[in-house]
Design a protein that fits this description.
Layout (H helix, E strand, L loop, with lengths): L13 E2 L6 E4 L7 E4 L10 H4 L8 E4 L14 H15 L4 E5 L1 H8 L6 E5 L10
Parallel strand pairs: 3-5, 5-6
Antiparallel strand pairs: 1-2, 2-4
Length: about 130
């Protein structure tokens, strides 16, 4: 699902300069959403979601630890939050951070006063015991 392939800068995300495992698409002055993937997938799964909004948005998507370019790193919340914060810094301004499933938990944990967060499908609270 996250196989390497040659990026096409005219139609979709390309690697962010100097930031391995972070992909960007859209105009540099576009609004800056950061899309956070769920478990067992990677930043490339967000590529189809960038095709339509890129005329107005500068979409950024990081690979979380334990996934694709970061698969050698164990998945820990602190490191995942750091990856999302690095992606947010790559936007150059306060972004909207959106995530689904695992990405929703990480997006919520990465929340900062200057960051808006959108969570979809994160049904459990981290650390919550039923």
């Amino acid at each position: 699902m996250c196989a390497d392939r040659t990026p096409d800068p005219t139609t979709g995300p390309t690697p962010a300069a100097g930031r391995p495992g972070i992909r960007t698409a859209g105009p540099a002055d576009g609004s800056p959403p950061v899309l956070v993937h769920g478990i067992r997938v990677c930043a490339r799964t967000r590529d189809p979601h960038t095709r339509r909004p890129t005329p107005r948005h500068r979409v950024t998507a990081p690979d979380l630890p334990g996934h694709r370019t970061r698969r050698e790193r164990p998945l820990h919340l602190e490191e995942a939050v750091a990856r999302v914060q690095e992606a947010a810094l790559a936007t150059g301004r306060p972004p909207l951070v959106a995530g689904a499933s695992l990405g929703g938990h990480v997006a919520r944990a990465a929340a900062h006063p200057d960051t808006a967060v959108l969570v979809q499908g994160a049904t459990a609270h981290p650390g919550h015991t039923p």
